[in-house]
C-alpha cells in the first residue's frame, strides 16, 4: 500500500484535537462539581476517557508504516466532520440551544453509522487494527446512539421520567448490541460491552422496572460477549500449546 495522503493525516490529527478538547469542555462542569461518591456520571467519564485514549492511538497509528492505509482512506474526511459536529453540539448544549444541538447530534450519529458501516469491507488484520481503528468507532457509535435516544425523550415532560420510555431505550439499544455481537458477522463485542457499560451506569439511578430490565440486558450482553470471546481464546491457547508441544518434541531426543 502507498503512503497515506498527508492531508488526511493532518485532518485526522485536527479531528482528534477537536474531539478531545470539545468533550473535555463538555465534561468540565462534571469534574468541577464532582463529589467523592461514585455516580452515574462517572460511567460516562470513564467511557469518554477510554474513547479519547483510543482515538489518540488511532491518530498516532496512521503515521506508522504498518497502518492500514486503505482503511484510513476509506474514512477520509468523515472523521473530521464528526469532530466538527461534536464540537458544535457541545457548544450548543452549553448555551442551551437544544434544538439545533439535537439536529447536529443526529448528523453526528448518521456520520458515525456511515463510517461504522464502511468497516464491514475492512476487517481488522490484527489486534492493533482492532484496538485503534475499529474499537474507538464502535464505542463512539454505541455511546452516541444512546445519547440520541435518551435526548429524544428529554424534550417532553411527559416522557422525561417515563418508565416506559426508559425501558424502550434499554431494550432498543440492547437489541442492537446483541445483534452485532451474536448474529452479525462482525462479532462486535466492543460495541456490546460499551452498551452494557452504559446500561450498568443507567441502572445506578433508575428505579423499579427500568432498573431491573437494565440489569437483565447487561447480563444478556455480557453472556453474548463471553460466547464470542471464550471460544477464540481457547482456540488461540490450543494453537500455542500445540506449537510448544511440537517444539519440545523436536528438541527431545528419541529414546532408542
UniProtKB/TrEMBL annotation:
Keywords: Membrane, Transmembrane, Transmembrane helix. The chain crosses the membrane at residues 12-31, 43-64, 76-94, 100-119, 131-152, 164-181, 188-206, 212-230. It comes from the Eukaryota. This is Uncharacterized protein. It comes from Rhizopus delemar.
Amino acid at each position: 500500500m502507498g503512503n497515506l495522503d498527508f492531508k488526511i493525516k493532518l485532518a485526522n490529527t485536527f479531528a482528534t484535537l477537536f474531539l478531545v478538547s470539545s468533550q473535555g469542555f463538555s465534561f468540565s462542569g462534571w469534574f468541577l462539581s464532582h463529589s467523592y461518591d461514585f455516580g452515574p456520571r462517572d460511567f460516562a467519564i470513564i467511557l469518554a476517557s477510554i474513547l479519547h485514549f483510543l482515538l489518540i492511538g488511532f491518530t498516532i497509528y496512521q503515521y506508522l508504516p504498518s497502518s492500514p492505509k486503505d482503511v484510513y482512506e476509506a474514512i477520509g474526511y468523515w472523521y473530521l466532520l464528526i469532530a466538527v459536529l461534536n464540537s458544535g453540539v457541545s457548544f450548543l448544549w452549553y448555551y442551551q440551544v437544544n434544538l439545533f444541538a439535537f439536529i447536529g447530534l443526529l448528523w453526528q450519529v448518521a456520520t458515525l453509522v456511515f463510517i461504522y458501516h464502511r468497516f464491514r469491507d475492512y476487517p481488522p488484520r490484527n489486534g492493533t487494527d482492532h484496538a485503534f481503528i475499529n474499537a474507538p468507532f464502535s464505542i463512539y457509535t454505541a455511546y452516541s446512539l444512546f445519547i440520541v435516544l435518551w435526548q429524544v425523550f428529554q424534550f417532553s415532560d411527559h416522557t422525561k421520567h417515563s418508565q416506559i420510555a426508559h425501558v424502550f431505550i434499554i431494550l432498543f439499544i440492547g437489541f442492537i448490541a446483541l445483534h452485532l455481537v451474536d448474529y452479525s458477522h462482525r462479532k462486535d463485542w466492543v460495541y456490546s460491552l460499551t452498551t452494557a457499560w452504559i446500561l450498568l451506569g443507567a441502572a445506578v439511578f433508575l428505579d423499579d422496572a427500568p432498573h431491573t430490565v437494565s440489569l437483565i440486558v447487561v447480563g444478556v450482553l455480557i453472556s453474548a460477549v463471553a460466547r464470542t470471546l471464550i471460544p477464540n481464546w481457547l482456540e488461540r491457547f490450543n494453537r500455542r500449546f500445540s506449537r510448544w508441544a511440537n517444539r519440545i518434541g523436536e528438541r527431545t531426543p528419541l529414546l532408542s
